[in-house]
């Protein structure tokens, strides 16, 4: 959205201070652990933009808690899977050979939004080492959350998502919804629905050398996440409100992950019973 259009559509000035008030009204507080999915433009025009939003989150949670954001780099994956847009097949070998190695301090995120991209460069923010599915974290448990992020099954039990589950963290949607909810991939990984496993690849550093390395990943059914979320909300409380002009939700991560796993187990059983 053009800047002028965003200003014209913003009803009153939004600042770091007003954002803190909105975050508190949503129930977020000092010492919480939260993974954030965000759309900056949905908030309206903010004095200070994405920087003010991040500062407001830090003011609210403080270093007694933890803020986590997805920092995925899906451009550093096997080009044979690229669809938006695809590239010619004859390019694939050269891309695998020439793609720069993932460097957590340098490699930009892709499709995560302006807030997540700015967050990764903030002081004391750390990033996990997965070359395609990394997470950034700030706060009390930063180093633990991002450490030992396994290459295989990057949203599974050896990922930052599993540590957020252990911390009984919350999920904050700022102008986003379940279709961007990375935590639900942990539920997929814990489902026993026999979903396919495929070989993915990325450029990374190994012993100081750039290599193209393959790892295993589960097929994801994120196109069903909105349906899962709608079913979840019929049984579980979701705190709703606004940050600026953005429609927001705060959801406990554990019950959503558990519900997602059960949803896909039940769906698999229904499909098998119909055969």
TrEMBL record:
Keyword annotations: Acyltransferase, Antibiotic resistance, Transferase
Class of the enzyme per the UniProt entry, highest EC level? transferase
* Keyword Transferase part of the UniProt annotation: yes
Q: Which Pfam families does UniProt cross-reference here?
A: Antibiotic_NAT
Q: Which reaction does it catalyse?
A: a 2-deoxystreptamine antibiotic + acetyl-CoA = an N(3)-acetyl-2-deoxystreptamine antibiotic + CoA + H(+)
Q: Which InterPro entries match?
A: Amioglycoside_AcTrfase, Antibiotic_NAT-like
> Which EC number(s) does the record attach to this protein?
2.3.1.-
Tell me the protein family, please.
Belongs to the antibiotic N-acetyltransferase family.
Name of this chain's protein: Aminoglycoside N(3)-acetyltransferase
- The species this protein belongs to is Bacillus kandeliae
């Amino acid at each position: 959205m053009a800047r002028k259009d965003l200003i014209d559509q913003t009803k009153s000035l939004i600042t770091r201070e007003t954002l803190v008030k909105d975050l508190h009204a949503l129930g977020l507080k000092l010492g919480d652990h939260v993974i954030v999915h965000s759309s900056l433009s949905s908030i309206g025009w903010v004095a200070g933009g994405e920087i003010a939003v991040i500062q407001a989150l830090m003011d609210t949670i403080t270093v007694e808690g933890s803020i986590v954001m997805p920092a995925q780099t899906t451009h550093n994956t096997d080009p044979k899977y690229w669809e938006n847009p695809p590239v010619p097949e004859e390019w694939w070998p050269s891309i695998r050979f020439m793609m720069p190695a993932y460097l957590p301090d340098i490699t930009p995120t892709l499709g995560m939004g302006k807030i997540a991209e700015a967050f990764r460069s903030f002081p004391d923010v750390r990033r996990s080492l997965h070359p395609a599915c990394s997470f950034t974290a700030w706060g009390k448990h930063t180093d633990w959350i991002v450490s030992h992020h396994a290459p295989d099954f990057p949203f599974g039990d050896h990922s930052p998502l599993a540590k957020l589950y252990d911390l009984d963290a919350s999920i904050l949607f700022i102008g986003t919804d379940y279709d961007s909810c990375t935590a639900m991939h942990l539920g997929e990984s814990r489902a026993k629905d026999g979903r396919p496993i495929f070989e993915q690849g990325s450029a990374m550093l190994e012993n100081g050398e750039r290599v193209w390395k393959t790892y295993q990943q589960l097929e994801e059914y994120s196109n069903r996440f909105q349906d899962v979320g709608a079913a979840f909300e019929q049984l579980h409380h979701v705190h709703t409100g606004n940050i600026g002009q953005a429609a927001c939700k705060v959801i406990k991560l554990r019950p959503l992950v558990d519900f997602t796993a059960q949803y896909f187990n039940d769906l698999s059983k229904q499909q098998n019973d119909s055969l």
